[in-house]
Amino acid sequence: MLLGLTGGYCAGKNAAATILESQGWKCIDVDKLGHAAIDRAADAIIGRFGPSVLGADGKVNRRALAAIVFSDKKALADQEAIVHPIAIAMIDELLARLEAAAAQGGREPLVCLNAALLYVAPQAARCDAIIELRAPLALRLKRAGARDGATLAAALKRIWSQKNLWPRRASMGPPVVVVRNRGGWEDLEAALKRGLEEARGRIARPR
């Protein structure tokens, strides 16, 4: 089973992925692969955005890059055009390895794609089902401050920049199951369990 896991900024995707991993799923953190893709595409990124995105270590500073692209639609589109093809190839390579390993072990592959931008990734159409995490805005803003040190304005801008992703779910082939994350590990674990049961049930029914 290939499961998509998505949701807005600070909705709790990584916590959900940790729960899934404890249950035997192999989770691919697409955001981390995106970071690796940025490193691979450093020359092109510097060529487009200039040396201001470089950190003291000579590598692309992702926060400096994010400050630019999340405040400028054209800049965001340019960054995605550079990075996404590399990240997509890396995802395909990792998916193939995990599926081959499961087949070799004679077991069902339980693979989860954890991606904020899942709905724009071509692999989304290959998912058997997608779980979309949602969390109250106040909780997301609190997490953004605690985790990323984001100001209220910066967190709201990041959340607003993702608004065009959600209408894409209507064109998704796989069933999309919404899981509400209201805070608390046990509550999320229970909500995720219900979401997985619903997802499997919807996979079993003809689309």
Helicity range? 40-55%
What would CATH call the class of the largest domain?
A: Alpha Beta
The 3D shape can be described as globular
Unreliable stretches covering 5 or more consecutive residues? none
Any idea what the radius of gyration is? 18 Å
Tell me the distance between the termini.
Answer: 16 Å
What is the fourth-level CATH superfamily of the largest domain? P-loop containing nucleotide triphosphate hydrolases
Name of the CATH architecture of the largest domain? 3-Layer(aba) Sandwich
Could you tell me the strand content as a percent range? 5-15%
The profile of the biggest β sheet is: 5 strands, parallel
Can you tell me about this structure?
Helices cover 54% and strands 12% of the residues. The protein contains eight helices and five strands, in the order E-H-E-H-H-H-H-E-E-H-H-E-H. A five-stranded parallel beta sheet has the order 2-3-1-4-5, sandwiched between helices. Helix 2 (30-40) packs across helix 5 and helix 3 (42-49) packs antiparallel against helix 5 (73-104). The longest helix has 32 residues, at 73-104. The chain is globular and about 50 Å long.
